[in-house]
Amino acid sequence: MREKKNIPDKEKNLTEGSILSSLVNLAVPIILANALQSMYQLIDTFWLGRLGANAVAAVSLSFPILFLILSLGAGLTLAGSVIVAQAKGAKNQRNVNYSSSQTVFVIFFLSILLSIITYFVAEPLMKLVGAGPEILSDSVIYFKYSSFGFMFLFMFFVFQSLMRGIGNVWLPMYIVLGTVLLNLALDPLFIFGFGSFEGLGVAGAALASVITQGISALVGFFILLKGKRGIKVKFSQMKWDFEWTKRMFSLGIPSSLEQSARAGAMTMLVVLVTGFGSEVVAAYGIGVRVLSLIVIPALGFSIATTTLVGQNVGARQIKRAEKVGNLSAKIAFFGLTSVGLLLFVFAEPITAFFVPNDPQVIKDSALFIKIMAPSFGVLGLQQVMNGVFNGAGFTQVSLLISIFSLWMIRFPVAFLLSNNTSLDEVGLWWSFPISNVLAAAVGFIYYKSGHWKSMLIKRRYLLNNK
Q1: Residue-range definition of the domain harbouring residue 381
Q2: Cβ(140)–Cβ(122) under 8 Å?
Q3: What gap in Å lies between CA 45 and CA 53, rounded to an integer?
Q4: Is the CB of residue 376 less than 8 Å from the CB of residue 437?
Q5: What is the pLDDT of residues 19-30, one digit of tens each?
Q6: Whole-structure pTM value
Q7: Inside any domain, residue 440
Q8: Could you report the per-residue pLDDT of 288-298, keeping only the tens digit for each?
């Protein structure tokens, strides 16, 4: 018989009470934490912009490849979060702790493996995405330094995802806040130097991030070991459980592939962008970083939706899970549409903040943002739909929608418009809103069809009749 224990009262029960209150209480700290994490890249861009457009371009080339590699670990941590959320919804604390220990164990070894591989293939990868001789050296150095931090970054991903799975979302946010403030101080020190300490340039930005990521990982792991925040991991449970690992991979691989599809599409777009010169690469890098910060509310509501839907599915409250999806979709769509309008108006001042002395880069980046901004609402809608499907355990659906959006729409449209029309690089910018609209439409139509609910009911029936 399944052992059940009361889960600590420190984490609010998300299977009852006001859905709006639960959603907001989860989403706000997640949004803040994600915004703060994006500050790593934005802080790097701000200080490197003082070195010139080539420094920004070097880091811009590294970013999509780094994201591609990190996507594998991020997808598996999402799987751990979903399993933990459903265990908490079922009030099975033993399974919460065991699943958390297994997640830490699997991700730790994966991160070590990826760190070793990426360090030695840094230069071929940078050449593959089209790094020119003027930025090749800096892009390789930045990538190699960043690879050292994969273990720390993955471990903090685990901590953050597990805490979110049980609804404890404020603690990770506080840790991220502390490390971002530290990075804010370390970045200019390591990039430019101070006194007798000689700056490291582009490498200094990566080193500052690795140090702060290491601190956050150690703090998070210590909290999990202590077991006073709703989850207690144990070394005795960190051994290969192939059945559990199989379940984790069945949930996590589609999510990893989804994020890999996103990163791969970003990488291919970078290949297209590099054909227009380093100024356009810098403009693209700034635009994507500003975009990543602005769409964080969509990702925040998506993750909050995953947690809420996961816990309610675990508690067998499918109708309540659907209500979560409906409300979250409305908030994300109307909220991000408003943000998009503001960003459209203030596009040039925002881009000038990053590269104040390069009018052409400012102009190109501002145009990129203005073209994307009106589609932010549908981008938010798509992310929330993914959150519903992930929380319900159907990560394959999110994968298929992402492949459709990025590989069947965005990249082909970007290639055709930039290479076969007079739009040139502006054709790349237009591929973003076109793919956002079509992907949101597909996800929303599937959600409203109710097929995902039927599958949940069928799954529950099969489990009850085993």
Answers
A1: 19-458
A2: yes
A3: 10
A4: no
A5: 888 888 888 888
A6: 0.73
A7: yes
A8: 877 777 778 88
